[in-house]
Structures are given as C-alpha cells and as structure tokens.
Amino acid sequence: MKEPSRVLKPDSIRRECEASLRRLGIERIDLYQFHWPDDTGTPVEDSWSEMAKLVKEGKVRAAGVSNFDTDLLERCEAIRHVDSLQPPFSLINRNAAEEEIPWCEKHRIGVICYSPMQSGLLTDSFTALRVAKMADDDWRRRASEFNEPNLSRNLALRDALRPIAERHGTSVSGVAIAWALSWQGVTGAIVGARPPAQVDGWIQAASLKLTAADMQEIASALKSTKAGSGPTIPTRAKGSAKGRSARMRFVSTSD
C-alpha cells in the first residue's frame, strides 16, 4: 500500500481545518497539530504562517506539530510560538530525549509523547509468537523493532521491568508509561487501547512515581539488553520548581 502524501500546503491546512470545524460542529479547535513534516516541497514557514492565521482568526486555540526536529521547530518558533510537540517516545525509542524534549522545555513548549508502549512491545503479554501470527498487512511485521535481533532485545527489556512493576503493584505497561512521563519536559502521553479492559493495565501510570533506584535499574536494563536507542536516564528528575505535571490521554486504537 502506498504511503499517503504528507501535505502542508497553506490552502490544504485551511481547508482541512475548516472541514473539521464543520464536522465537529464547533467554532474553535482546542489543539490543531501538523502530524508530519511536509514532503511536497512546501516551506515550513508558509505552512506555519497559515497556522498562525487560523489562531489569529479564532479557529484554532493552540497550534502544534508532531514528528518535527529542532531545525523545523526553530523555523516555526521564529514566526509564532509552537504550543506543542508530539514526538514518539518510549523506553525503546528514546531519541527525542536527545534534542527535541530539552529544546521544548527551554522554549516552554508542551511535549505530548506518543507510543510510550512501543506499539504493544512493552506490554506484559506480548510475545514473538504474536508477531508471527500478525496479518500480512500489519506494519509491525516489517518494522525493525519487531524483527530480530531487536525483537529479542526488546522482550528482554520488557521482562526486566517485571520486578519493578511487582514492587509498585502495577503492570509492565504502567512502568513503561511512567518512565516516559518522568522525563523533565514531557507534559503528557498518548496511550492506545482497544477494549476498555486494557486501560486497567496502565491507568496507574498517571500517578506512579518511579524512584531514583527504579530509574537506575531501568537504565542498567537498557544497557544490558541493548534495546533501543537514545538517552537512558533523565539528567534531572521531574518535580522541580520548573517541572510540569504529567498527564495521559488515551485513544481507542492499538498503541
């Protein structure tokens, strides 16, 4: 299946925003985000200027982006403040903690991370057999983190989280989400669920406070399993005077 085009042409941004307003029956969208950088050659300055117009006109309350690097963020920030960044961020995909999350904290931009359970890998019941049984059109069958040697490394990391989960009376999923929320600069997390029962497995993550010892144990597990990439432990803990309170938002799909 052909990947959809990522279009951030000004007329497309406006047309889609106004169509959403009509469908939703509202006058203003609380948070409107670009989900991916443009791949049609449209300068991001043109795209973000159109977003700024929508905010000025009262059609959008807060404007954000997703999957943008710091170069694109800086170019947007020069035109109008970026209210939010939505990056992928998990124990396996830790790359956003290298540059984007610190940059956003410095510029007082909210960070709403997505896929903190790495599309199901960091859940208690995930197995290699499950990957083998996935439908042929399931993107995870072709994703590097769901294939060897990464799959074994990721499942070894997941298993290393079990003692921490048991100590806190929660699930591996809860620990994985709490880890993402513990990073200074992270405002919240988008967590996927299909049946309502899945929510019970990680809902405690919103209030779970991992200790310094927990974080160090997790960092050691990341080193020993060689799972994923990116920084392994926050340079300073959330909860300082400048820290934001973390929140979760869940959607009815697989994470």
Describe this protein's structure.
The protein is an alpha/beta fold and 255 residues long. The protein folds into two domains: 1-86, no CATH class; 88-255, TIM Barrel (Alpha-Beta Barrel), CATH 3.20.20.100. The protein contains nine helices and six strands; from the N terminus they run αβαβαβαβααααβαβ. The protein has helices at residues 10-24, 44-56, 70-77, 100-106, 128-132, 150-160, 162-168, 172-181, 212-225, and strands spanning 29-34, 60-66, 84-86, 110-114, 188-192, 247-251. The protein has a six-stranded parallel sheet. Strand 3, helix 4 (100-106) and strand 4 form a beta-alpha-beta unit. Helix 1 (10-24) runs parallel beside helix 2 (44-56) and helix 6 runs antiparallel to helix 9. The radius of gyration is 19 Å and the shape is globular. Residues 240-245 and 250-255 have low confidence and may be disordered.
List the helices and strands and how they pair.
Blueprint: H1 10-24, E1 29-34, H2 44-56, E2 60-66, H3 70-77, E3 84-86, H4 100-106, E4 110-114, H5 128-132, H6 150-160, H7 162-168, H8 172-181, E5 188-192, H9 212-225, E6 247-251
Parallel strand pairs: 1-2, 2-3, 3-4, 4-5, 5-6
Proportion in β-strands: 5-15%
* CATH fold description of the largest domain: TIM Barrel
Tally the helices: what do you get? 9
Secondary-structure content class: alpha/beta
Summarize the structure.
The chain is α/β, with parallel strands linked by helices.
What are its keywords?
2 domains, 255 residues, 6-stranded parallel beta sheet
